[in-house]
């Protein structure tokens, strides 16, 4: 496999939700109906923890990391079901997740990171990066960044 989505959730941003080059990972499976009546399915290829991934160093050409970004959300709330929540250890968890994404990324590979500033500011998360991002874009509270492993 060439691509890793390290916490795929319901794969909302994927055009092809069964991309043959991709390992879809998450730490849960879900099949439920949300309060708005829509069905939420989280069905990763593998259930693993992004803080300790079961891959060799330098495995993937592209790693996508879109971790939970909410610290406060009720356990059964719409947002929590859809995006998961951060624990009070979130800084260490995200730091480890980024470090693992970086470890399993090949040299000359690309990492894409997404963050939403709804509850935690970008300046707090920036401190956890393995290196400086190449480019990025902000749209409202959502920030997309691209890293390149030299
Ligand atoms: C923001 S959502 C991802 C949304 C996804 N990109 C999409 O397009 O639908 C974050 C996901 O991270 C997962 N997650 C939380 N902690 C994790 C961990 N330690 N290891 C792997 N996945 C985790 C959650 O279950 C949740 O599905």
Short description, anyone?
The protein has helices spanning 78-83, 90-104, 122-126, and strands at 3-5, 22-26, 30-33, 39-42, 46-47, 60-65, 105-116, 135-139, 142-148. It is an alpha/beta fold and 150 residues long. Bound molecules: S-adenosylmethionine.
Number of helices: 3
Low-confidence stretches: none
Structural class: alpha/beta
Helix proportion: 10-25%
The distinct ligands, each listed once, are:
S-adenosylmethionine
CATH architecture: 3-Layer(aba) Sandwich
Read across the widest sheet, the strand sequence of neighbours is 5-2-1-6-7-9-8
Instruction: State the shape.
Output: globular
Radius of gyration equals: 15 Å
For the record, give the distance between the C-alpha atoms at the N and C termini, rounded to a whole number: 21 Å
What is the number of strand segments?
Answer: 9
- Main beta-sheet strand count, sense and barrel state: 7 strands, mixed
Looking at the structure, the CATH topology is Rossmann fold
Task: Walk me through what this model shows.
The protein starts with a strand and ends with a strand. The strands form 2 sheets. A 7-stranded mixed sheet has the order 5-2-1-6-7-9-8, with helices on one face. It has a two-stranded antiparallel sheet with strand order 3-4. The model has no long low-confidence stretch (mean pLDDT 96). It has 3 helices and 9 strands, in the order ββββββααβαββ. It has a single domain, classed as Rossmann fold (3-Layer(aba) Sandwich), CATH 3.40.50. Helices cover 17% and strands 32% of the residues. The radius of gyration is 15 Å and the shape is globular. The structure holds S-adenosylmethionine (SAM). The site of S-adenosylmethionine has 19 residues, from loops.
